[in-house]
Amino acid sequence: MASDVSAIGTIEKLVLAAPRGYCAGVDRAVQTVERALEVYGAPVYVRKEIVHNKNVVAELRGRGAIFVDEETEIPAGAVAVFSAHGVAPSVRHNARQRALQTIDATCPLVTKVHVEARKFAEDGYTIVLVGHDGHEEVEGTMGEAPERIVLVQSEDDVDRLEVEDAERMAYITQTTLSVDETSAIVARLKERFPSIVGPRRDDICYATTNRQAAVKQIAAQCDLVLIVGSRNSSNSVRLVEVARDCGTEAYLIDSVSEVRQEWLAGKRAVGVSSGASAPDHLVSELVEFFRERGVGDVSEHHAVSEDVRFMLPREMREALASASA
After folding, report:
1. What pTM was computed for the model?
2. Which is more confident, 1 or 115?
3. Which CATH number fits domain 109-192: 3.40.1010.20, 3.30.1050.10, 2.70.180.10, 1.20.1260.10?
4. What is the residue-wise DSSP string for 132-168?
5. Is residue 1 over pLDDT 50?
6. What is the average pLDDT value for the chain, to the nearest integer?
7. 144 classed as catalytic
8. Tell me, what's the pLDDT at 209?
9. Catalytic pick among 71, 116, 136, 137
10. Domain covering 24-107 in this structure, CATH number
């Protein structure tokens, strides 16, 4: 535990990756729950975790948000927020059946993938979804056209793939995947199925791409990388993998309390980043931990600038307008 780490010996500098932390979709989703609590009062129900970060979920739960696994657990007529990862059409149907006051906090970039899935399905394509089995985003996307979508997670899955019409195929991807790994899987798909078509723009979101690029750059100048994020956060896990693929020791931590003495032994430069659902204060606490132990050289490595912003969901904007009228 960090509290047991009294000295960090050889560490000379800390390098912070930029960009890091909240992406526009996460910021929008968290704000949605916060504003819903302000307008409607507690409780506000949230299907699944609003974003994959246990600190964020705990904070919102403390304010009166109630997190449930399924919409069928929400009392009829209650206020219900759909998480940033998106939901299948069946979930929306169930919500209507229960007369829930729904607020859809699905990230617009996930919604883009859902739209692609529906269009490809309507055009008669077999759709290959590159993603991780069991991830909420994947479940929501597959729900858009379950009879037409097949999931692949690796190049081996592509090699085993059998389809009825190899001339009528399309691919889409989960937004939070490893850029390099996904490129390899898509390349294999194109090799096996030359006629396959894809989205006009890559589905992997800007924040995932940017954070992976930044970690790759700081990993090259550090001998340890710490990623702040929860273990169920796909994009955070990918950041650890990116650093390790560079040959750099790397670990995922939910907070500074998880830093271990043995990780720091013999290290000189430590890189720090955070997943797209990790709040800034968790990184600040980690930086302060190192400063308190004598590390004065703290710098930020800027890989790319981000200026993406998303409006709150329409339902939330309308509720806010009514409340202030």
Report:
1. 0.95
2. 115
3. 3.40.1010.20
4. -TT-HHHHHHHTTSTTTEEEE-SHHHHHH---S-TTS
5. no
6. 96
7. no
8. 97
9. 137
10. 3.40.50.11270
